[in-house]
Amino acid sequence: MITFEEPIIGKEEKISLHEAIDKNFIVQGPYVQKFESLSSSYCDVKYASACFNATAALHLSLAALGIKHDDEVIVPSFTFIATANAAAYLGAKPVFVDINRDTLCIDAESIKKKISGNTKAIIPVHMYGYPCDMDEINKIAEKNGLFVVEDAAEAIGATYKGKKVGSLSDIGCLSFHSSKIIRTGEGGMCLTNSKELDERLKLLRSQGKVKANELKGDDFIEKRYYHNLLGFNYRMTDLQAAIGITQIKKIDENIEARRKIASLYDKEFKKYGICSVEKNRDTEPVYWVYPLIFKSRKMKLTVGRELVKRKIPFLPFFWPCHKQPFYNTKENLPVTESIVERGFSVPCNSMITEQEAVELANIIGNVVKNA
């Protein structure tokens, strides 16, 4: 049966969890440190800071970079709302921009038009596991003195010009939600090559509290509850990390299975003239899901109704942030609005067989053909 959900807890995960419990490693401890080490190594960065989820990772990242009230942070409107909310939590203003119609990722020309004197950062989102054009984004950021924070929540393992996403900016953010490629239930990670930023991220995630092992003499007696700055309670637990440690060792196998199914989808949906995202020659996506873009909203709804009737799962595209009630900026972002109106995503993971992938493509294709 086709599903978005891959099992979180298998035999190896159970063994790792039981080991952590038997050693009484429940809160943040050695398992988190090991998971951070494995994550930084896998993503080709020097440092990694684990936290409770990817929303927290984005919030921590902007806080560590000093984003504050009335600053502006450029984000694509076509993203999960947490990308924008991370800026709003700090009193900053999310400035919404359009996407490239071929990649569904943030559009460089749209970024340039929205830069102002208050702009401090850009958050490119590697949508659905497809990498952004990071060279162009970093060029814009460097020219204007802006920070770049990658939202790689859906894209761990994807590469841009041979480099892992999350390693191509000031800070990269990962998600380990139960729907993602590595699944610890909830979980996130901040990646960076800056020692200074890593230290600040780790301080912020733990209430801004000084580390006991850094205190000397009488300070150790008196100041173990001393807080250098206003921080958050965003720590990951060793139980989450115990699962992550097991799964990151299998991630390449998982990604290869996704790419195999995506390749089948490419071939089958093409027969019916159904579009998806264009794979850039400089990128290797990881296909968190497989997006489909139909010729009209009417066609999307016709196909969606058939899938609902057959109890086949699919995900609507993220509702544009600029049209969410909390923001409702009345921006004119034509590509975003057109794509959201005409598309949705189908599952693309290691649980799907080749036969199931072909059958799903044929079901959708025949609805389109006969509509």
Keywords summarizing the entry:
371 residues, alpha/beta, Aspartate Aminotransferase, domain 1, 2 domains, seven-stranded mixed sheet
Protein model, in words:
The chain is an alpha/beta fold. It folds into 2 domains: 11-248, 3-Layer(aba) Sandwich (Aspartate Aminotransferase, domain 2); 251-370, Aspartate Aminotransferase, domain 1. Helix content is 40%, strand content 13%. The chain contains 13 helices and 13 strands. A 7-stranded mixed sheet has the order 1-9-8-5-4-2-3, sandwiched between helices. It has a 3-stranded antiparallel sheet with strand order 7-6-10, with no helix packed on it. Strand 4, helix 6 (134-144) and strand 5 form a beta-alpha-beta unit. Helix 2 (30-42) packs parallel to helix 9 and helix 3 (54-64) packs parallel to helix 4 (82-88). It is globular, with a radius of gyration of 21 Å. The chain starts with 10 loop residues before the first helix and ends with a helix. The model has no long low-confidence stretch (mean pLDDT 94).
Q: Kindly report how far apart the N and C termini lie.
A: 26 Å
The biggest beta sheet, please?
A: 7 strands, mixed
Rg (C-alpha, Å): 21 Å
* Morphology call: globular
- Structurally, the number of domains stands at 2
Query: What name is given to the CATH topology of the largest domain?
Result: Aspartate Aminotransferase, domain 2
- CATH 4th-level superfamily of the largest domain: Type I PLP-dependent aspartate aminotransferase-like (Major domain)
Structural class: alpha/beta
Average pLDDT across residues? 94
The number of helical runs is 13
Order of helices and strands: HHEHEHEHEHEEEEEHHHHEEHEHEH
CATH class annotation of the largest domain? Alpha Beta
Proportion of helical residues: 25-40%
Give the strand tally: 13
CATH architecture label name of the largest domain = 3-Layer(aba) Sandwich
Side-by-side strand order of the widest sheet: 1-9-8-5-4-2-3
Question: Hey, roughly how much beta strand do the residues contain?
Answer: 5-15%
Low-confidence stretches are: none
